[in-house]
Hints:
The protein is of the alpha+beta class. It folds into 2 domains: 7-166 and 285-290, Ribosomal Protein S5, domain 2; 169-282, Alpha-Beta Plaits. It has helices at residues 64-76, 99-114, 118-121, 124-135, 141-146, 181-186, 194-212, 218-221, 236-247; strands spanning 7-18, 22-40, 44-51, 82-89, 149-155, 158-164, 169-174, 252-254, 261-264, 277-282, 289-290. Strands 1, 2, 3, 4, 5, 6 and 11 form a 7-stranded mixed beta sheet that branches. β1 and β2 form a beta hairpin. The protein is globular.
Amino acid sequence: MSFVDGEVRVRVPATSANLGPGFDALGLALTLFDEVTASVIDSGIEIVVEGEGADTVPTGEDHLVYQAMVSAFDLLGETPPGVRLECKNRIPHGRGLGSSSAAIAAGIIAARALVVGGEERLDAGSVYQLATDLEGHPDNVAPALHGGFTIAWISGAAAEVERLEISHDVTVFVPPSEVSTKTARGLLPEVVPFGDAAANVGRAALMVAALVQSPERLIFATEDRLHQSYRSTAMPDSYKLMQQMRVEGIPAVISGAGPTVLAFGHGLTAWVPEGWAAHELSIESRGARVF
């Protein structure tokens, strides 16, 4: 038999990409988790969703966790007769906290765990490459799979990653409304001023140093001139909150494509706008895993 008996459980962290200047490159894994329980059944697709997206996400072949599982099964050369999924979602959808990357990572890890000898047949590099191919960019799937602080890039067609172990407290401010990644990316210009590009290169380099050894530099390291201001029209309240916090010396950025605001530090809940949610988190050292 090609599949293990019983069910497997996978936990995957939320992620925050860009971190200000590190557009499509830098990412953090955060201590907020989705959990997926998967098993092979005799036939069909059974998907149960609790928590975030329970009333809106599809529960058939269009479900993103299931689609990622199918892609992983294909690479493994296996076709299960049926699949059952139970998804406990805590990562907000459409808020710039990596919910789609979490779903993709969870699906691939779950499929691999359900196949006898799956880890030997689909190694970590292949998992990361598949997740990047499915997501379209590596900045969120890198921390979702590897944990910690990641620097991700594409070399030719190959997804690459460098992972660093860091320890920081963060607070995420989650607004009630979504902004799709497609909408946010659509606001970005095709060409940016050379000076802005040069400034971001320097700040992205400084960001690595600030996170690893010089946290007092974070207010400077989180400066961005490439994407946040262009996206402000889609998330004016988020952009305003970020700017207000920065004026007070708090290193704050738009998380991923937004509209969540991520600030470094705890004890910031007085900044939560009415109707928003705040989560005090830290950096999660482990990526998606069977538990």
